[in-house]
Description:
- It is a single chain.
- The protein is 42% helix and 20% strand.
- The protein is built from 3 helices and 4 strands.
- It has helices at 2-7, 59-82, 96-113, and strands at residues 13-17, 26-31, 36-41, 86-91.
- It has a 4-stranded mixed beta sheet.
- Helix 2 (59-82) links the parallel strand 3 (36-41) and strand 4 (86-91).
- The longest helix is centred in the middle third of the chain and has 24 residues, at 59-82.
Amino acid sequence: MRRSLHALGMRFLVDAPVPGTSRRRRADVLLRGLRIAVYVDGCFWHSCPQHQHLPRTNREWWQRKFASIVQRDHDTDRAVLAAGWTPVRVWEHEDPDEAAGRIRSLAVDLRAVT
Length: 114
């Protein structure tokens, strides 16, 4: 996806904290001028509705673990919004070119508003 974003002329930071939020929760891609924070979520850990499955052993523990990760993602999105940034979530299985196109469209929309 980063290659696709770069090909579209977008410049960004990789693995960077969002200014005004916890430095421990880092964005995978940070578009500073546009104030967009992109998070690429893995299907297993972030409970992808298409691909998520529970391990067969210790299911209750895994359910709690996955629920806590999803909750942390929601908390991160709220903190990013509160800091004046736009969070974008991309699933690891998404086509990189389509994800980059979606981010570019959002960037165009944000530029039109400001």
